[in-house]
Design a protein that fits this description.
Layout: E1 2-6, H1 10-22, E2 26-30, H2 33-42, E3 48-52, H3 60-69, E4 76-80, H4 85-93, E5 98-101, H5 104-114, H6 122-129, H7 138-152, E6 157-162, E7 166-171
Parallel strand pairs: 1-2, 1-3, 3-4, 4-5
Antiparallel strand pairs: 6-7
Helix pairs in contact: 1-5, 2-3
């Protein structure tokens, strides 16, 4: 799987790069909207675009708009701290497949990617995600797992539930 990350926050980008590469993905990173647009014009080899909206030099929504205008169907997950309904609707109208809110959903995905192929209990997820400064219940974990499943359902991986024990990120045989 080849992923392009368009994110100007270097710390966040480094964390994503490490996690995704550790899970076996080929990952490229750009830090501006113009770089993202150029990378997406020169190749159609990306299986996923993780796109920050607040990119310098070209807004993430403009990158998305141009991508879709070229007829590209690459799945796009918008990664943003902005959580307004209006912004979500606009991104989805422009052709994004989904949103991932910083930092909670990202933290959950990062934990699963770091432990790809191995079981992760709800308690381990709660313990890890509380580092982000949020109180998290087991029910909240189930909701966020459900949301992540919907976001990755078209890709080559899935989140499997091991009843009573936890979750495992695994490749779909094919």
């Amino acid at each position: 799987m080849r992923i392009l990350i368009a994110e100007d926050d270097q710390v966040l980008a480094d964390g994503l790069l490490r996690s995704l590469r550790a899970s076996g993905a080929a990952v490229d990173h750009v830090a501006s909207g113009t770089e993202a647009d150029a990378a997406l014009m020169t190749t159609d080899e990306f299986d996923l675009l993780i796109l920050d909206l607040g990119l310098p030099k070209m807004h993430g929504l403009e990158v998305l708009k141009r991508l879709r205008a070229r007829g590209s169907a690459v799945p796009v997950i918008i990664l943003t701290a902005a959580d307004s309904v209006e912004e979500r609707v606009k991104g989805l109208d422009y052709g994004a497949d989904d949103y991932m809110a910083k930092p909670f959903e990202l933290g959950l995905l990062e934990v699963l990617l770091q432990r790809a192929g191995r079981l992760v209990s709800k308690d381990q997820l709660v313990e890890r995600l509380c580092e982000w400064g949020e109180e998290v219940s087991n029910n909240a974990i189930e909701v966020y797992i459900h949301r992540l499943r919907k976001k990755i359902e078209k890709g080559p991986i899935r989140i499997a539930t091991v009843r009573g024990l936890g979750y495992c990120l695994e490749k779909i045989p094919g």
